[in-house]
Amino acid sequence: MPSKNNKNTRKSGAKKSVSRAALRSHKPQAHAHKQAPARSGKATKNHPVKIKMPSKAAEHGEAAGNANVKQAEEARKNEELVGNNALVKAINSNIGHGAMDVLKLLAPGPKTDESIAEKLGVKVNDVRRILNAMNSHSIVRYDVNKDTKGWLIFTWRIDSEKLSEYVAETMHKKDDADSMLPGNCNDFFICKGCYQKEKTVLPFDSAFEYGFVCISCRKPFTPLSREETVALFKTAN
Fold it and tell me: Lowest CB count within 10 Å: 37, 87, 130, 180, which one?
């Protein structure tokens, strides 16, 4: 008959067996793959937020849009200036009547001298003389490029800032004959045949650009001193 101590030993072993079996049955399971956290606007260590940069096409489109807005503003300003009565009078007197026609075409935006000549139905050389005469007053400027054949193309535009200054200067001049003439010029030219109709007196720089020949009748200009020009204005008034 087994002793009491043997019974206790078997019970203890059974407990140990159960404990080991329980441990074996509760082995840690393999870790499941962690689910990626939902993307949000906030960056994390493992999932930084990607910032979408604008494409070059978008940047180019934005730049083109800004350029169009600026050109539209300049066109509006130029059209207002070209319609100023003081400017019309000064341009007609100091550059010639054809100059206003050219300025009106340039008001909406840049144009080549050839396209201006085509629209006005005049020779391109006459348009170039007018543009050069206005350029001597700094109210127009040009850009030079080459076409596919290597020929130079001159694209002309109104200098809005200089034209504004020219208008302001013209409006603030006194109404006497001497004040209406450029202060730094003593040599002037007229076309005797066209003066009664056009009332144009050209300073030396403008006459030089025309080659000292009237673009209306193709006759040579007549030179006048400053005193003779002032007397002519007084007679006209």
Answer: 37
